[in-house]
Amino acid sequence: MVDLSSALNDAGFETPRTYLQSGNAVAGYPETDATIVARDAARAVAARIGFQTTVVALDEAGLADLARESVRASFASPERKTATLAEIDSCAEADRV
Predict the structure, then answer these.
(1) Which residues pair with 17 in a beta bridge?
(2) Structural contact between residues 16 and 27, judged by C-beta atoms closer than 8 angstroms
(3) What is the mean pLDDT of residues 69-89?
(4) Average confidence (pLDDT) over 26-41
(5) Angle at 9 (CA atoms; ends 7, 13), nearest 5 degrees
(6) Furthest-apart CA pair in the chain: how many Å?
(7) Can you say whether the dihedral through the CA atoms of 58, 62, 64, 66 is positive or negative?
(8) What is the Cα–Cα distance from 58 to 13, expressed in whole angstroms?
(9) For 36-64, what is each residue's pLDDT tens digit?
């Protein structure tokens, strides 16, 4: 995910960090509107990697909510022994979760 980190860094995202080979990244950005952040990140990826993708942008509160709901849903079933924090499909049809 070096290309993803580099693409985001070159586009002005602050200290981008990726998680394994998941396609997920965490970074700071001067813009606070999630729609604009997602648009700019998608453009950076397209310019660097050469394909269009849908980007989901969350602020700290949104990420915390997603984590909380993910853990709650993971343990709602007694068969589940582990929880996935957040895995977001790059083909999602939304700008925000």
Answers:
(1) 26
(2) yes
(3) 56
(4) 90
(5) 115
(6) 45
(7) negative
(8) 14
(9) 999 999 999 899 888 888 888 888 888 88
